[in-house]
Amino acid sequence: MSPSAHDDLQGGTAAQLPASSHGASRPEERERDAQRNAVVEVLRLAPLAEELAERFAAAGHQLYLVGGSVRDALLGRLGTDLDFTTDARPDRVRELLDGWAETVWDTGIEFGTLGAYRHGTTVEITTFRADSYDRVTRNPDVEFGDTLDGDLLRRDFTVNAMAIELPQRRFVDRHGGMPDLLARRLDTPATPEESFADDPLRMLRAARFAAQLGFAVADRVLAAMRDMADELARITPERVQAELSKLLCGTHSRRGVELLVETGLADHVLPEVPGMRLAIDEHHQHKDVYEHSLTVLDQAIDLEQAEQTEPDLVLRLAALLHDIGKPATRRFEPGGGVSFHHHEVVGAKMARKRLRALRYSKEVVNDVSGLVYLHLRFHGYGEGNWTDSAVRRYVTDAGHLLERLHKLVRADCTTRNKRKARALQRAYDELEERIARIAAEEDLAKVRPDLDGNEIVRLLGVEPGPVVGEAWKHLKEVRLDRGPMERDEAVAELYRWARDRGLDVPGVD
């Protein structure tokens, strides 16, 4: 089947997208089956798509399901967000949505896009575009087009440049999107040099789609990404951050990170990651920090999937960045050893600086840097010298990050020595059991001094101020060391602290 085919796909039954190009059927038959599947899947999951199209057709306008919606229908992952394109201008689109949609919004109308919501489905409808770019920024001069062909040519990848004309149920593939989808390959409708010059963010999108879909990148696209990586400097940190977050939350996020590093894009996004590729002297053997970090990322994702939880951006960032302080702290020791003393402290500062530069929220910055700082705290527990006090401090210092810290520490075990790996996992199992036991006895989630600030003021006869804060911190430290105290014990400890500080304690000699 020609890539430019415009096939009538009336009827048909749903079929799974073939996993490879090998099989009894010919490629053109497989393409036709996949196209039919996309149409049937769209109409099964989103019957209102045809309903909306009939409304446009009655008004003399074309309507196409387009882009990611078609791709996802082919992959069996179509959601409740649908993208359409039309020859109708935005004001006319608004008129056609009024009376049909439950809600309409026009925040993207300057780009020709209106959004609407009906019966649990969100739709975005964009007028055909034929934009031009100044190739200085990534902002296009928005121009409305008159043909679907022009609109599809300006899209980022061929797998996102397919369309379904509704209500006619015709599949449109002008740029070989279907063969690329069947081959699980990312290529561009125009040349990649033209595409990336127009919008360098598309290079990051290539890595993001590789991470989300597990697709490979066409050779010519890979070459252009290497040659044009410096163009990424035109993109704002906020847009880079959005693509990086989606990449890291993908099922195949390691593949996306490796693509960033291989092409040089990582030098403009997370330069600390390629910076972990340390040269290993034959006399100073140690793990390759970069490969180790990718393995930790993989294992953190495995732990998420085992618990059937949603992708955790904070955990994945921490897994990738937990050892970024190692290059700066590497020291060659006498006898061939290598040390990375305090790399968790240096790494936490580096992570904080990089994530701030990428405009991540304060919460993400604090949580990721906190995990990087804490990731080594567990080591030494297996030697059997942790008291209950040390366990309390571990829990208290981790705070709301404790569950993530559990996963990060477990994922950080990448030794090939199975005996050592089992010992580490058993040690952490034991630590979690101790945490659970102590928590049941003491409510570790709320470790606070046994006296509050108001009681300290009354007992010491002082005004609120620094002295009260210092006393509160002291009692918290005692609480962590000893566990809960009876009130009389806590009061006696407060008075002892006050006397040692030279404070006069009312009623106490």
Automatic annotation (TrEMBL):
Its EC number is 2.7.7.72. Its cofactor is Mg(2+). InterPro entries: Bact_CCA-adding_enz_type3_sf, HD/PDEase_dom, HD_domain, HDIG_dom, NT_sf, PolA_pol_head_dom, PolyA_RNA-bd, tRNA_adenylyltransferase. Residues 289-408 form the HD domain. GO terms for molecular function: CCA tRNA nucleotidyltransferase activity; metal ion binding; nucleotide binding; tRNA binding. Residues 25-35 have a biased composition (Basic and acidic residues). Residues 1-35 are annotated as: Disordered. It holds the Pfam family HD. GO terms for biological process: tRNA processing. Residues 414-448 form a coiled coil. Signal peptide: none annotated. CDD domains: HDc (cd00077), NT_ClassII-CCAase (cd05398). Keywords: Coiled coil, Magnesium, Metal-binding, Nucleotide-binding, Nucleotidyltransferase, Transferase, tRNA processing. NCBIfam families: HDIG, tRNA_CCA_actino. This is CCA tRNA nucleotidyltransferase.
